[in-house]
Each structure stands twice: as C-alpha cells, then as structure tokens.
Design a protein that fits this description.
The complex is a heterodimer of chains A (354) and B (596). By secondary structure, chain A is of the alpha/beta class. In chain A, 30% of the residues lie in helices and 18% in strands. A 5-stranded parallel sheet of chain B has the order 3-2-1-4-15, with helices on one face. A 5-stranded parallel sheet of chain B has the order 6-13-7-8-9. Classes of the chains: A alpha/beta (354), B alpha/beta (596). Bound molecules: flavin-adenine dinucleotide, thiamine diphosphate (TPP), iron/sulfur cluster (SF4) (3 copies) and magnesium ion (MG). Thiamine diphosphate binds at residues 66-69, 87, 111-114, 118, 138, 140, 142-146, 151, 218 of chain A.
Chain lengths: 354, 596
C-alpha cells in the first residue's frame, strides 16, 4: 500500500478533453496491488483511453468478479457505477444490468482465473449472446490473489517460482472466442500502452461483446525466469499482428471491409459510425475473416508466440437488445404503469394463451 | 541521447534549487525538516555551518534562494526559507557547546583582516578552529560592519547581531577596535602570513547639484551610510518633520523608515524611474508603503533651494521615460518643501589607505582586481572579500567570499597553490525505511505560503529598535515546513534493475517520467509524457534499459520528490536518497567523490 495518495500538484494546467475533464478526473483511489503489478498499468491505460474517448464517468458501469484483477475497478473512474460480483459471475451481472439499461458503457474487468476457470461458462454465453460489454481479461497465468497457483491462462511448461511445471494445456481466450462467434477479439500487453490504449478505445465503440486479453504480469508470483508470462518473456514472445491507428477515424470513402490489403491500411466501419483504421496489417491477414484469423492465431500459438493487436472484428452482428428488439429506453425511464401494468394486464395475457 | 551516466554530486546539487542558488550553499531542505521536527538547535547549526549568521540572515538576507525555490514553480509562492531560518535561530536554545572552537595549541600562523564586517568574520570563523591567530583591525568600536551601522535595528535587533558576531570573535579573534588601517604597506610590514581585506564599500554617494553646500544645506542634507551609522550609534536622534529621501533602492527604504521613526512625519521617497523599475526588494518597498511613506516617481533633483541661508526644499525635474526606462527627457519641474534631505543614491568603494605600488592592481571603479574563485588579489598573500572585492553586494555573498578566502589563506600559509582547492564532496543515502515508508514527509501539501506577522503600526514608531517582523507562529511553521518539497531527497535510478513495467511512469503525479525509444534529443523531448517547461534543471537520461533498449528519461524540473516512483517500483530500480553535500572548507584536503 503506497504511503500517500497520488497528489494533485497544481503545476502547468493539464489538457482537457471534449467534456472539459483532465486525465486526473478519470483516476480513482490508490491501488493496493503489489508495486509493479501489470494490472495497475492496465488501469492506467483504461484511464487514458476513457479520457481520450471523452466518456462521461457517470455513463460507465464497472463490473468485476474476484481476484487481484477484479479489484482494479476500484482504482479508476471514481465517478462511475460499479458492481463487484462473486467469483466468476461478472458476465451474468453485466448481462442483467445491460438488459435494464442499454445506454451505459459496461466495462468488465476479470482475471484469467475469474474468467477462464470458475466463470468460463458465463463468458462463453456472454460472447454468444453478444452482450454489449467490454470484457478485459487481465491475464497473468496465475491466481494472483490466492498466492500464485497456475490458472487456465498458464502455458504448458511454464514454471512456478519453485520450479514446478504446468502440464495442463492453456485456454486461449482468442481462439475460444473465435469458435463461439465472438465479434471483437483483441490482445494487448499492460506495459505497452501505445498499442493497448487504441484497442480499448476501439472496444468502447464496438457494437457487441468486446473481449480483450491483456497480458498483465504478476510481479509477485509469475515474473521469474521460467515463467512464460513475465515482462521479459512476454516481450520476447509478442508478435504485433495488427496495429491500430488512432482508433475511430471519421468515415473516409467507401468501406474497405473484407478486402485484404498488402501490409497497408485497412478501414473497418463501426456500427455506431466512424471507422477503425488499421495500419501494417500483414499480407494475408484479414481481421474480418474468422477462418483465416483462426488459422493465423493457431500458427502463432504453435510457434510459442503471442500475437497482439485487434485480431478479429465483425460489426455486422446485432447485440442482444437488437436481436430481442427490447425497449430502447432504459427501464428506469419507462413509466411505472407501463413497466408494471398490473394484475389485470397479466390476466389478459394469460387468458390469450388459454 | 547520451546517457547522463551515473550522476554525481555536481548533477544532483543542481536539483536542490535553493541550495544551488544560495551563495553559501545552505542546506535548506535539511534545516526545514529539522525545524519541522522541533530540532531548532540542529537546524541552527546546519545553517551556521554554511552561512555563519543564521539569526541575522533569517531577518535580512536578500534570499536569492527563494526565487529559485521549486515550490515557486508549483504554486507560484516559494517556501518562506528565510523566515524559517529565523525560527531556527530564535528557538535554538543554548548551542554554545556545539559551536566550533579554537584548538589549545595554535598553528603558529598569523593572519590580519581589515574590517570587522561579515566577510572578515567569516574568514575568522573558518581559520580560528584551525589554530590560526587572527587579528582584525576595525575603525569602528564594535563588530558587524554595515550590519551594525547601516541595517536599522527595527530590521535587525542588536541582541541578534551581538550574539552572532560574538560567537566568532569569542573563539579567540583579536579585534583592534577604533584602529582604522591607514596604510596597507605598514600592515604588510608587520609580517602577517596573510592579509584579508574586508573593508566593505563604506562610502555613500553624494549629489553635486546647485545649492548642495549653500547656507545650512550641509547640516540638513545627509548621505545615507554616514547618516544611518550616526543614527545607529545614537549620534543623531532626530530629523525634521518633512523629509525627502532621494533614491529608491534598499538603502533608501532603510533611510525613509528610519526618518519616520525619529521625527519625520511626512517622509517622501523620490525616484527617477517608474515603479516597475525599482531596485528595492518588493517586501522592503511594501513595508515602507505600509508605514505611510510617500512616493514620487519620475523625478530627479535639479537643485537644493536655500532661502535666507536655510534649506527650504528641493526643485525636481519631471522626467518622461521611454518604454524600457532607458532614456528620459525633462518635461517640467516641481518644488518640494523639505526640512531635511537624505541621499540614498548608491554606495562606493574607497581604498585611500591602499598604496598603489604594492603589486595590488586596481581596475575600473577603483576596485581591486580579484580572482572570483580564490579571492586573491594580484599580490600573493593579500585576499579580498565582501563588498571590498567586487563592489556592494550583500551579507550572504560576503560570507561566501569569506569561506573561499579562508581556503586560499590556509593553502597560502601551507605553501600550497591557492588554485588546487578542496572540492565539493557528496554522498547519497537511501531514505527508505520500509517498502512504502520514508524518513521524510513525502506527501504534497497544497497549503499556501504563510505571511510573516508584523507588529502593529502604532507600536513600530514608539522606539527606533522595535523589530517590525515577528516570528511565524507555531501553526504557521507547521504549515510552512510542509511546503518544502525535499529537493535534496533525490530520485536515484539503476537502469539494470528496470523491468519496464511502467508503474513509475503511471504513478508520477507530474508526468515527469518517460520510457521511450532512444533517438536524437529533439525527438526524445517531443515524446515526453509532459512537454518540458524549459527550466534550468538537468534532464536525467538512463543507459538503455535491459529488456527493450529503450531509455528512462526524467525531467528534474517537474519532480516534487514525492517518492511514489520508488514506492511503486517492483525492483527498487528507483530509490529516494538524500544528497549529503560537504562544502569545501579551509583545512579540508578534499577531492570530488562520485555518488551513484
Ligand atoms: C542601508 C543598507 C542596508 C543593507 N541591508 C542589507 C540587508 O538587508 N541584507 C543584506 O544581505 N545586505 C544588506 N546590505 C549590504 C550588506 O550590509 C553588505 O553587503 C555587507 O555588510 C558587506 O560586508 P563586508 O564584510 O564586505 O563589509 P562591511 O559590512 O561594510 O564591513 C566593513 C568594515 O570594515 C571597516 N573598515 C573599512 N575600512 C577600514 C579600514 N581602513 N580599517 C579598518 N576598518 C575598516 C568598516 O568600519 C566596517 O566595519 C545593506 C547595506 C546598506 C548600506
Ligand atoms: C467461489 C470462489 N472460489 C474460489 C475463490 C478463491 N479465489 C479468489 S481469487 C481466485 C483466483 C483469481 O485469479 P485471477 O482471476 O486470475 O485473478 P488475479 O488475482 O490473478 O488477477 C480464487 C480462486 C473465491 N474467492 N470464490
Ligand atoms: S499478487 Fe500478482 S496479480 Fe496480485 S497484485 Fe500482486 S502482482 Fe498483481
Ligand atoms: S519523486 Fe518520482 S513520482 Fe514523485 S514527482 Fe519525482 S519522479 Fe515523479
Ligand atoms: S517501476 Fe521500476 S521496474 Fe517499473 S518501469 Fe519504473 S523503474 Fe522500471
Ligand atoms: Mg490471474
């Protein structure tokens, strides 16, 4: 625990975003995580991305399960709503909240344990339903909070600090997501904000479920020689597959979706307007083509590499509200008489089925 | 960019802005912390080790440290460094057992000093503990120089002056009061091993305009330094009702405020230039205005008006200045009635007692040619310091000169070249007590600068010696010490330990840290977390970091020394370490020590 809160020093005036807020307005109380934990850097990337996107703090709902990663919603955006659920149950809570109010930005922070062990079933169905939720997995290969047991994010052969090897095969949330029909899949690295921040901004603008796997080293239990998720190992294994330019560019010309450029620029139109602009997409890589992305990722994984970037995006799939044609209005805006029309109306409905 | 390398004391001392700006290099943050801990005696001794006169300077220093203070870049007002020095001095208790002492066995060398002002006293302070026999020749009857004769008692009480001059003299200096040196040649013949000239700039400038010596004008037109001295020594106890003070520097401020206290009820200061171009320190001007002193700007005396043998006033030219107040033209004239006039238009050196055939060269303005490092004149064995060396400066510069001259005198007496001098020594001492606990209060407190309390106006004029400023209250001290940013507690970086996790970059409250690709300086600067403000502070540039070969860059100008980078670093690549500097002193055989 740091000795002091990060002070507000009235030096040169800080830049303000479209809402007139400074980046400090997007921070929260001091983190109690270990010094140097990747999760704290991910938090800093979120602060930066939320500020840059000029998102109103009170329009955000922060959700999480249990774990060091799941503690982090406390440490940013003090003006937002939040729900710290039980272990692995963040997605159902987010699904319910989103059903009640589709106007807010749902930001789920989970760990590789929380999301890929106890919460795996919920994650799968959240992806399938395409709930409009930005779902981060702060992936450190261990259960940090419970002192460093291997998690399903751990690679086969990765060693614990005492030298035991993990002999179970890992769950790769990106490959899993592809198989479940995910519509937005990205991977970043906590210590590389240059690339992580645009991924987050793109996710905020996505139509449905955005899954971001953030390699986020556990300095305490998984940052040693022999670990495949240390800072050093991640840097050695990382392969930047796609690179996102300042994410949401205003629509420029006819959409290029589906065309595969040769290591050049690729624009993908977003459902809410504007375009994602990729640069340096390798020849043959089409982030809108599920099959070729699956092949590509499997090849990387086979070589022990960690592909990063916005790996897959599909803006054509309706989200859960669109599919159910549920009310546009947040339920708290629906007049009570309409929301709860009374026993008479219920009787009438039931009568219709008799 | 070129890595800064492992920084040394010369790098780190520039980060301590106040100490770097102080001519005597007083360890400001250290004594501010000691004051905060109620350890006033130790705070006093930290001061005394460098500036010799903490009680005097805590009231009168020109405080070059304050405009330099880092706090002034954060919330515009610097720490009240000077007034905290006064607090340390006033509350120090008895520290006599911890003051330097002369050894029982002298070293057999004899040194003469001319004048008993702060410069000579600083020389004596450094040489007496080494066993030198120091003889001071002083024309006046008491020690202190201009600190006694010019600085009025309402700014510097006599008890304070007496105590701190006595602390030096009582170490065993032989002071020959009432014995002005009339001939340096004769003094040199007396066979001293070295001579120090600390005779000051003792002459106030006169004004040669018509009427200056007409009728009784000589009795009613006074020259600043002589008149202030005459008031200080109680030869003059009254002045006319209507007083004009010509000039608007700090001396003029002391003159008008003194006049106000001994009978001048309508005192007006007359300035040549517009107010924006005054030389007086803003706080001295403010005190004068508060005491009801009148101010007339853009006027210059044309003649003293004497009628029937009596001075009746001054005729003034009205001036019109260009924008930068460089050129003026006369556009009219005013008559101002006056019973007395005080001339405070400058101070001059005068060395009528130094023969010009002794091998001591003189340059412009009748000033001796003096080496700015060694304080040596062109004649080996004769050294100058204080106002006598380069013209009128201030007390703390006189002290700084005294330390350097003492080093030279010691080297000279040991037949060593005065140019091979002991140098600054420094070491870094980690201030970490535990994972996130420091030996210093690292939090940033946004509290504003505390205003010095002052005696009520009516009580000030009751007696000449009523000190106007009071000590800060206990509550004010408690707040003011928290404003200090502990710039001496340095961030120390070890590139080899860094895992590039970004924690320090994220936590720094001022955006002072950046990890970025190496490249040409302009390109690196363009990528900094916060654009550089362009201060005079050094830039820290690390060796390439182990994992990515990127570099860590720190803008020292921004840092508030909160220690959060070091607390959030998982590998202790950052640490907070106090820079302990040992200033070069006479008798030290030193060499520069690299810290890292
Ligand atoms: C009105 C006024 C106000 C000032 N206020 C401040 C202030 O608030 N803060 C500040 O820092 N500075 C102030 N100063 C400047 C400061 O007093 C001087 O810079 C400082 O005292 C210089 O010290 P010194 O040792 O060089 O000489 P001095 O203090 O001038 O001492 C020289 C001594 O040498 C003696 N002497 C001269 N000739 C001979 C001789 N031939 N033989 C023997 N003795 C001799 C003189 O009698 C005198 O005692 C002020 C100056 C004036 C005039
Ligand atoms: C129902 C339930 N089972 C087990 C636990 C114990 N537990 C707490 S956190 C955690 C794992 C967290 O791992 P991860 O999500 O990867 O978070 P990290 O701490 O690594 O960031 C476990 C198993 C619990 N809190 N609740
Ligand atoms: S145990 Fe690991 S995951 Fe948890 S705070 Fe510490 S470094 Fe982060
Ligand atoms: S001590 Fe460290 S964190 Fe604090 S201001 Fe300085 S560089 Fe930034
Ligand atoms: S916190 Fe320490 S290890 Fe992390 S980037 Fe900063 S100096 Fe390097
Ligand atoms: Mg984990």
């Amino acid at each position: 625990m740091p000795s002091i809160a990060k002070p507000l020093v009235p030096r040169a005036p800080l830049p303000r975003n479209a809402l007139g807020l400074t980046v400090r307005d997007y921070e929260g109380p001091m983190s109690t995580l270990c010094a140097g934990c990747g999760h704290d850097s991910t938090t800093a990337a979120l602060v930066q991305a939320l500020w840059q996107s000029s998102i109103e703090p009170h329009r955000v709902v922060k959700l999480s399960g249990i774990g060091c990663s799941s503690k982090t919603p406390t440490y940013f955006l003090r003006g937002a709503h939040g729900f710290n659920s039980v272990h692995g149950r963040m997605v159902p809570i987010a699904t319910g909240a989103n059903a009640a109010n589709r106007d807010l930005l749902y930001l789920g922070i989970s760990g590789d344990g929380d999301a890929l062990s106890i919460g795996l079933g919920h994650l799968c169905h959240g992806i399938r339903r395409n709930v409009r939720l930005v779902h981060l997995i702060e992936n450190n290969g261990v259960y940090g909070l419970t002192k460093g047991q291997f998690s399903p994010g751990a690679d086969r052969g990765s060693a614990s600090p005492r030298g035991e090897r993990n002999d179970l095969s890992p769950i790769d949330p990106m490959l899993l997501g592809l198989s479940l029909g995910a519509t937005f899949l990205a991977r970043g690295f906590s210590a590389d904000k240059v690339h992580l921040v645009p991924l987050l901004e793109a996710a905020f603008a996505h139509r449905g479920f955005a899954l971001i796997d953030v390699i986020s080293p556990c300095v305490q239990f998984n940052n040693h020689v022999g670990s495949t998720k240390s800072y050093a190992a991640t840097r050695a294994r990382e392969v930047q597959v796609t690179d996102l330019l300042a994410p949401i560019a205003p629509a420029a010309g006819p959409p290029l979706a589906g065309t595969v450029p040769d290591g050049g620029v690729l624009d993908v139109p977003m459902a809410g307007g504007g375009e994602l602009r990729f640069r340096s997409v390798p020849p043959g890589y089409d982030p809108t083509d599920r099959t070729s992305v699956a092949v590509h990722l499997a090849e990387h994984a086979g070589r022990g590499e960690v592909p990063t970037g916005l790996l897959f995006v599909d803006e054509s799939v309706p989200d859960v509200h669109e599919r159910h044609r549920s009310t546009q209005q947040p339920l708290n805006d629906v007049p009570f008489e309409q929301l709860c029309p009374g026993a008479g109306t219920l009787d009438a409905i039931q009568a219709a089925y008799r | 960019m070129e890595p800064t390398g492992v920084p040394d004391a010369a790098y780190y001392q520039r980060v301590v802005d106040c100490q770097w700006a102080c001519p005597a290099h007083t360890d400001v943050p250290e004594y501010v912390r000691l004051v905060g801990q109620g350890r006033y005696g130790e705070a006093y001794l930290v001061n005394r080790a460098t500036n010799v006169f903490p009680g005097i300077l805590g009231r009168t220093c020109d405080r070059p440290c304050e405009p330099a203070c880092r706090r002034g870049r954060v919330d515009e007002e610097p720490v009240a460094i000077c007034r905290l020095k006064r607090v340390a001095a006033d509350l120090r208790g008895d520290v006599s057992d911890r003051l330097p002492k002369a050894p029982r066995v002298p070293n057999g060398k004899r040194v003469a000093a001319v004048g008993c002002g702060p410069a000579s006293l600083a020389v004596a302070n450094d040489l007496l503990p080494l066993g030198y026999a120091v003889t001071i020749f002083e024309g006046a009857t008491e020690p202190g120089g201009l600190m006694r004769s010019s600085i009025p008692a309402f700014r510097l009480p006599l008890e304070v002056l007496d105590a701190e001059t006595a602390a030096v003299v009582d170490m065993g200096a032989e002071v020959r009061y009432g014995q002005p040196v009339a001939s340096l040649a004769r003094l040199l013949e007396a066979g001293y091993d070295a001579v120090f000239v600390g005779s000051g700039a003792p002459r106030g400038k006169d004004l040669d305009v018509p009427g200056r010596h007409e009728g009784d004008a000589d009795a009613h037109v006074h020259v600043s330094l002589d008149w202030l001295a005459s008031v200080a020594f109680r030869h003059t106890t009254a002045i006319g009702r209507r007083v004009l003070v010509i000039g608007v520097g700090n001396t003029a401020m002391d003159c008008c405020r003194t006049a106000r206290r001994i009978g001048g009820t309508e005192v007006t200061v007359v300035a040549r230039r517009p107010r924006a171009f005054f030389r007086a320190s803003p706080w001295e001007l403010q005190d004068a205005m508060e005491e009801g002193i009148g101010l007339l700007t853009e006027r210059a005396p044309r003649r003293f008006v004497v009628e029937h043998g009596h001075l009746v006033g001054v005729e003034l030219d009205e001036l019109e200045w260009d924008e930068r107040a460089e050129h003026s033209r006369v556009v009219g004239s005013t008559f101002l009635p006056a019973d007395d006039v005080v001339l405070a238009i400058g101070q001059e050196n005068a060395f009528p007692w130094i023969e010009r055939d002794l091998g001591i060269d003189f340059g412009g303005a009748d000033l001796p040619v003096v080496d700015a490092v060694t304080m040596s004149s062109t004649r080996p064995g004769v050294f100058f310091g204080g106002d006598a060396a380069f013209g009128p400066q201030n007390i703390v510069w006189a002290v700084a000169h005294g330390h350097e001259a003492a080093i030279s005198i010691d080297l000279h007496c040991r037949d060593l070249p005065v140019t091979t001098r002991p140098s600054l020594q420094g070491s870094l001492v980690s201030q970490r007590l535990s994972l996130s606990q420091w030996s210093y209060a690292n939090d940033f407190n946004p509290v504003g600068r505390q205003e010095t309390p002052r005696v009520a106006l009516e009580r000030r004029f009751a007696e000449l010696g009523v000190e106007v400023e009071l000590d800060l209250t206990a509550e004010q001290v408690a707040r003011e010490i928290q404003r200090c940013l502990n710039c001496d507690v340095q961030t120390q970086f070890r590139a080899s330990r860094c895992v590039e996790c970004d924690a320090c970059v994220d936590i720094c409250p001022v955006g002072g840290l950046t990890i970025t690709e190496d490249g040409p300086e302009a390109a690196v600067r363009a990528r900094l977390t916060v654009p550089p403000a362009g201060g005079a502070e050094p830039f820290y540039v690390s060796e390439p970091l182990p994992q990515t070969r990127r570099i860590m860059v720190k803008d020292e100008d921004l840092c508030v020394h909160c220690g959060l980078c070091a607390e959030r670093c998982p590998t202790a690549a950052w640490d907070m370490a106090k820079l302990v500097l040992v200033q070069p002193r006479a008798g030290a055989i030193g060499r520069a020590v690299t810290v890292g």
